[in-house]
C-alpha cells in the first residue's frame, strides 16, 4: 500500500518545489540616502578622492532633510541679525532723540508687536511641518495663511489701538485729518508684521532659510537708514518734553520697512509655494502646533508688554530708560534659548556657569553700558543690576522650558510659559500702578533711576518665586512619562 506524503518545503522554496520570489513590499529598504552628505572615498582606488565623490546638493522637501534647515543656521542667523539690528537701531535713535520723546515710539512698536503675535502666535511655525506635506495645495495654504494673518493682525491692531491710549495718537500726528487715521496706521502695521512672520515660516519650510536672513537684513538696513534720515531732516531732538511729531516719525521709521516688505514678500513666497507644489505629492498634513502658539504668546507678552506697561504708567521718559535696560534682559533670554537649541543642548549647571559670570560682568559695567545710549540712561544703572539679578533666576526657568520641549511634552512648556509670564505681568503692572499712585509718573528721564527701582525689584521677586516653584515642583513631574503630560 502506497502512503502519500506531504511535499517537503525546503527553505527558500514553495510547496511545489519552485523557488519563492521575494515580495518587494514585505521588506522595504531601510537605508535612506541623504543627497546632502558626502560619499566616502574608497582607499586604494586611483582617481577616487573626496572632492570628486561629493554628491551635488539637492533641495529637500522637508525641513529635516539636512543642510541649512536641518542645522538651523539660517533661522538662527535671522534671529541674531534681528536682535542685533534692533539694538543698533534703538541705540541710534537714543543718540538722536531725547528719551522723553522716544518713549512714545516704543509704545507704538510694542502695541504693533503684541497685536501681530496675538493674531498669529504659531502661524509661521505651523507652516514648517505643514507645507512639505501640503503637496499641490501648498500655494493655497500659503495664500490662506497670509490672508488670515493680515486680517487678524489688522483686527487685533485696531482693537489695541482703541483700547491702549497713545499709540494711535502718536502715529495720527503724522497725517492731518480725523483721529481714526492713527488707528488705521496701527492696524496696517500689525497686519504687515504678522505677514512677515508667515514669510519667515514659509521660506524655512520650503528649504530657503537664508531668505529669512535676507528679510531681517533688509528690515535692519531700512530702519537704520530711515532713523538717520529723520534725525537729519528734523534737526535733532535734544530738548525735553513729549513731542508727538518726533515720536511719530521715529515709530514710522521703525515700521515703514515692515509695511514696504509685505507685498513683494507675500508675492515671492506665494510663487515659491506654487512651484514647490508641482514637484511634491500630497500627504496628510500634521496637526497645528497649538502648544507652540501658547508658548510664543507667553514669550511675546513678557518681552513686549512689560516695557509698554512702564511707558503707559510712568511716562515716555522713564519708560524709554526702562526699555533700554529691558533689552539686556531680553538678550539674556535669547542667548539662553540659543544655547539650549544647539546640538546636544546644555545642562542647567553649564548654562548657569556660562552665563552667570557674563551677567556679573555686565552688572559691574552697567553704568558704562547704559552711558553709550546717553547720560539720562546711565542714571538707571542700579535698575539694570536689579533686572539682571532677576534674569539670573530666570535662567532656571528657561532651562526647564528647553528640557520639557526636548522630552517631547506638548503642553507642559506652554503651561510653564503662561504660569511664569502672567504673574510677572500682573506684579509688574501692580508695581507700576503703585508708583504712579504716589505721584511719581511723568517725571523727567534723568530721575528714572529712583522711579524704576520698585518695578525692577518686583520683576526680580517674581522670578525668584518662579525659580523656586520650578525647582520644587518640576523634578517630581519630570519622572512622569511624556504621554501623561499632554
List keywords for this structure.
486 residues, disordered C terminus
Task: Tell me the fraction of residues in β-strands, as a range.
Answer: under 5%
H and E string = HHHHHHHHHHHHHHHHH
Q: Tell the overall outline.
A: globular
Helix fraction, binned, reads over 70%
By DSSP, the count of extended strands is 0
**Number of helical regions:** 17
Biggest sheet statistics: none
Structural account:
- With 486 residues, the chain is mainly alpha-helical.
- The protein has two domains: 67-287, no CATH class; 289-486, no CATH class.
- 70% of the residues lie in helices and 0% in strands.
- The protein is built from 17 helices and no strands.
- It has helices at 67-71, 73-96, 99-119, 123-134, 138-163, 167-172, 180-205, 209-234, 244-277, 290-314, 316-341, 348-364, 366-371, 375-378, 381-406, 411-437, 448-477.
- α4 runs antiparallel to α5 (138-163) and α7 runs antiparallel to α8.
- The longest helix has 34 residues, at 244-277.
- Mean pLDDT is 75; it is low at 24-71, 237-242, 282-288 and 476-486.
